Amino acid sequence: MLAPLARPTPPFDGPVPREQARHARWVDPVLAGEVQYAEWTHEGMLRRPSWRGLRDDKDPRDITREDRS
Protein backbone atom coordinates (compact mmCIF):
# COMPACT_ATOMS: atom_id res chain seq x y z
CA MET A 1 0.00 0.00 0.00
CA LEU A 2 2.84 2.41 0.78
CA ALA A 3 5.19 1.43 -2.06
CA PRO A 4 3.39 3.50 -4.75
CA LEU A 5 3.49 6.52 -2.43
CA ALA A 6 7.28 6.45 -1.93
CA ARG A 7 9.27 9.66 -2.26
CA PRO A 8 12.97 10.46 -1.67
CA THR A 9 12.49 13.36 0.76
CA PRO A 10 10.30 14.14 3.79
CA PRO A 11 6.87 15.56 2.84
CA PHE A 12 6.99 18.29 5.50
CA ASP A 13 9.00 21.38 6.39
CA GLY A 14 11.72 21.45 8.98
CA PRO A 15 14.75 19.31 9.69
CA VAL A 16 14.44 15.67 10.64
CA PRO A 17 16.77 14.53 13.42
CA ARG A 18 19.49 12.30 11.97
CA GLU A 19 18.65 9.39 14.30
CA GLN A 20 15.00 9.35 13.15
CA ALA A 21 15.86 9.92 9.49
CA ARG A 22 18.52 7.21 9.31
CA HIS A 23 16.10 4.37 8.49
CA ALA A 24 13.08 6.44 7.44
CA ARG A 25 11.13 5.70 4.29
CA TRP A 26 9.15 8.70 3.13
CA VAL A 27 5.73 8.60 1.46
CA ASP A 28 3.23 11.14 0.17
CA PRO A 29 0.75 12.03 2.95
CA VAL A 30 -2.48 10.74 1.37
CA LEU A 31 -3.53 8.18 4.01
CA ALA A 32 -4.75 8.89 7.55
CA GLY A 33 -3.78 6.77 10.51
CA GLU A 34 -4.37 6.74 14.24
CA VAL A 35 -1.52 6.69 16.75
CA GLN A 36 -1.91 6.39 20.51
CA TYR A 37 0.86 8.06 22.51
CA ALA A 38 1.86 9.04 26.04
CA GLU A 39 2.74 12.69 25.37
CA TRP A 40 4.52 15.16 23.10
CA THR A 41 8.17 15.80 23.97
CA HIS A 42 9.67 19.30 24.12
CA GLU A 43 11.20 18.56 20.71
CA GLY A 44 7.77 17.92 19.19
CA MET A 45 8.16 14.13 19.02
CA LEU A 46 5.68 11.53 20.27
CA ARG A 47 6.66 9.65 23.41
CA ARG A 48 5.80 5.92 23.31
CA PRO A 49 3.75 5.99 20.08
CA SER A 50 1.65 2.94 19.24
CA TRP A 51 0.14 2.40 15.79
CA ARG A 52 -3.64 1.84 15.99
CA GLY A 53 -4.41 1.53 12.27
CA LEU A 54 -5.54 3.33 9.14
CA ARG A 55 -8.59 5.60 9.28
CA ASP A 56 -10.64 5.43 6.08
CA ASP A 57 -13.20 7.80 7.64
CA LYS A 58 -10.70 10.69 7.80
CA ASP A 59 -9.18 12.86 5.08
CA PRO A 60 -5.46 13.56 5.79
CA ARG A 61 -5.99 17.25 4.97
CA ASP A 62 -8.41 17.50 7.92
CA ILE A 63 -5.99 16.02 10.48
CA THR A 64 -4.67 18.35 13.18
CA ARG A 65 -2.27 17.86 16.06
CA GLU A 66 -4.07 16.76 19.21
CA ASP A 67 -2.81 18.36 22.40
CA ARG A 68 -3.43 16.55 25.63
CA SER A 69 -3.69 18.68 28.73
TrEMBL record:
It holds the Pfam family DNA_ligase_A_C. Residues 2-58 form the DNA ligase ATP-dependent C-terminal domain. Residues 1-21, 48-69 are annotated as: Disordered. SUPFAM superfamilies: Nucleic acid-binding proteins. Residues 53-69 have a biased composition (Basic and acidic residues). Its EC number is 6.5.1.1. It comes from the Bacteria. This is DNA ligase (ATP). It comes from Sphaerisporangium corydalis.
